[in-house]
Amino acid sequence: MNAAGAEDGNAEFAAGRSLPLLQDTTEAHVWAAWGVVYRDVVIVNPAGEKVDVYNLTEHDLADPANLAALEAKLRAPADGK
């Protein structure tokens, strides 16, 4: 989830990707409501409800095990888990 006020570069970041980018706003304050910290990947279910968080500072995606774990977490809500 991108922090409110940090929208510059969203178009370039999302270009060519199929995963959505959540953009917080000052009106919604989702970072605060969900307890998001910098470099969190917030995983939502099809209803848009937060179901998990995976922090990229703690889990370097250069490690294949971390990448596999994140992929599994991203697939779980779509698979109904």
General description of the model:
This protein is α+β, with helices and mostly antiparallel strands and 81 residues long. It has two domains: 1-36, no CATH class; 38-81, no CATH class. The protein contains three helices and two strands. A two-stranded antiparallel sheet has the order 1-2. A hairpin with a 5-residue loop joins strand 1 (40-44) and strand 2. The longest helix has 15 residues, at 64-78.
Blueprint of the fold:
Elements: H1 10-14, H2 30-34, E1 40-44, E2 50-55, H3 64-78
Antiparallel strand pairs: 1-2
| Largest sheet report | 2 strands, antiparallel
What are the segments in which pLDDT stays under 50 over at least 5 consecutive residues? none
Distance between the termini: 21 Å
Structural class by helix and strand composition: alpha+beta
Features:
2 domains; two-stranded antiparallel sheet; 2 strands; 14% strand; globular
Task: Provide a short characterization of the protein structure.
2% of the residues are buried.
